[in-house]
Write a structure and sequence with these properties.
alpha/beta
Length: 509
């Protein structure tokens, strides 16, 4: 049985700096930081290693205090669920505001859980926080750490106390022991062998519902309000002994609407694009009831340019079952028409609400992740090239006939190939597309883009011939008369006397 990692949860009122502390400890920018109370909604998780001890750090939304977020009640429920599964609680307070009634309420509820508690008074770089420091001892939590999450002051002392409390509770150091990276930030431990999967799409198409259904838990918030998800929430998943890292992202609207939606939405969309760049396979979720839109095609273009594997998932299929048995064919044709550049992507019809065809999603993701890393042997590749070019030779852009001499695979994820020709450095775009389709059909590259390059084969003897020609020109072309300004000229044969000039010739005395 796999060893469980202890969990440490950051709790506190809204806008006290929990997300800033989370980013500081994890050495990342995963949590969105903004001066707006209620920015964090879902519980973020990241694995941290400090003094050879690993633990999962959770950032939660504000539990009490003023919040303009209409989903604040759901955020509180999500935070309380994280507290129930915690092994250690870090209570973060705002030293600039001082001790308020909400802090006392949180302290009382945290003590009722029976979990060990650490108190971190944040924003201590402000003089107002230093003046109000003694008030926090009235909460009865010992010790009290005075920190500045923004500047990293006191964060190391908090991490030392976390490790001591975990070890006192029976959690042992990692084996084999490794030294932590120096500096105030930490590098999160990378999980090897995982398949990174990003769920992207427009707002309110059911990405979070689909993620919760796959994880079989209410990991991320779900509501009918568009834009519920803000942070990119990642969670591990094991399916048939295959390990996935599932990332739920914020809905991506058109750039014009994003710029008018405020700083939080701009950062959320940037996080979604970063999740695409970090993923192995991207699940593009579209609404089956409305069909694929131009924005869906734009998001698909981002995935294709990033070179990531992709599967198109039409969610809410339970709403269109009454449109007849042929609607699936009509829907797929319309989707292909709007996304011609994604003709290699498979389209799945699922329902996150009923769970219909959900196993097919993970099965397709796993197959795409494997095919993206297939490496074709060079002999088999060149045999394929010989057969394809014999049946359909490339079009000559000039007078000379273009021949593909040989090919080689130069990379995986995505599969990348280079074709060497006799004269051309480019092929017609239609022939390049033909080669890509033939490669996909022959070697089974499902759901992944293929990159190809065309190069002219270098002349093996051209360099030596040019050097020989240059040396010969230096000996003959630069010859000068004896005694002239152009140089010594042709050397005289040794032992042979110089000829005397005949009478009457110019220059003879």
């Amino acid at each position: 049985m796999a060893k469980r990692t202890p969990s440490v949860v950051l709790v506190g009122r809204p806008n006290v700096g929990k997300s800033t502390l989370f980013n500081r400890i994890t050495g990342s920018r995963q949590a969105i930081v903004a001066p707006l109370p209620g920015t964090t909604r879902d519980a973020l998780e990241r694995t941290v290693t400090w003094r050879n001890t690993s633990f999962s750090l959770f950032d939660t939304g504000g539990l009490y205090g003023a919040s303009e977020d209409p989903l604040h009640e759901l955020v509180v429920v999500q935070g309380q669920r994280a507290i129930e599964g915690a092994d250690l609680l870090v209570f973060v307070a705002d030293g600039r505001e001082g001790l308020v009634g909400g802090d006392q309420t949180i302290a009382t509820e945290l003590r009722a859980t029976g979990r060990p508690i650490l108190l971190a008074v944040n924003k201590f770089d402000d003089k107002r926080a230093r003046d109000a420091a003694l008030d926090f001892y009235r909460l009865g939590i010992d010790p009290v750490f005075e920190i500045s999450a923004e500047h990293g002051t006191g964060v190391a002392e908090v991490l030392d106390a976390i490790v001591e409390r975990l070890q006192a509770g029976g959690w042992h150091r990692d084996e084999p022991a490794t030294e932590s990276a120096p500096g105030p930030g930490l590098q999160p431990s990378a999980a090897s062998g995982e398949i990174g999967v990003a769920f992207v799409g427009r707002p309110n198409v059911g990405k979070s519902s689909l993620v919760n259904r796959l994880l079989r838990e209410e990991r991320v918030l779900v509501s009918d309000m568009p834009g519920t998800t803000r942070d990119a929430i990642d969670s591990p998943l094991v399916w048939h002994r295959r390990r996935f890292r599932i990332v739920d992202t914020a809905g991506m609207r058109r750039p014009g609407k994003v710029s008018g939606g405020g700083a939080v939405e701009m950062v959320s969309v940037a996080g979604a694009k970063r999740a695409i760049a970090d993923a192995d396979v991207v699940v593009l979720v579209i609404d089956a009831a409305t069909g694929a839109s131009d924005q869906d095609a734009a998001i698909g273009g981002e995935v294709d340019r990033a070179g990531r594997g992709i599967v198109i998932v039409a969610n809410k299929w339970d709403l269109v079952k009454d449109r007849g048995p042929d609607y699936s064919t009509v829907f797929d044709e319309a989707t292909r028409h709007g996304m011609r550049f994604l003709d290699y992507a498979q389209i799945l019809h699922i329902s996150a609400l009923t769970g219909e065809r959900l196993p097919k999603v993970l099965e397709t993701i796993d197959r795409i992740a494997q095919t993206r890393r297939v490496r074709v042997p060079t002999p088999a590749l060149n045999k394929f090239v010989e057969a394809v070019t014999a049946a359909n030779p490339p079009v000559s852009p000039g007078r000379k006939h273009v021949r593909i001499l040989y090919a080689a695979q130069i990379g995986v994820a995505p599969p990348s190939f280079v074709f060497f020709t006799n004269v051309a450095t480019t092929l017609h775009f239609s022939y390049e597309r033909f080669l890509v389709n033939q490669l996909r059909e022959k070697f089974g590259f499902v759901g992944t883009p293929i990159r190809i390059q065309v190069r002219r084969r270098a002349d093996k003897g051209g360099g030596a011939r040019r050097a020989k020609k240059t040396a010969s020109a230096g000996q003959t072309g630069g010859r000068a008369r004896p005694g002239g300004s152009g140089g010594p000229g042709k050397p005289r044969r040794p032992g042979k006397p110089r000829k005397k000039g005949k009478p009457g010739r110019k220059g003879v005395r």
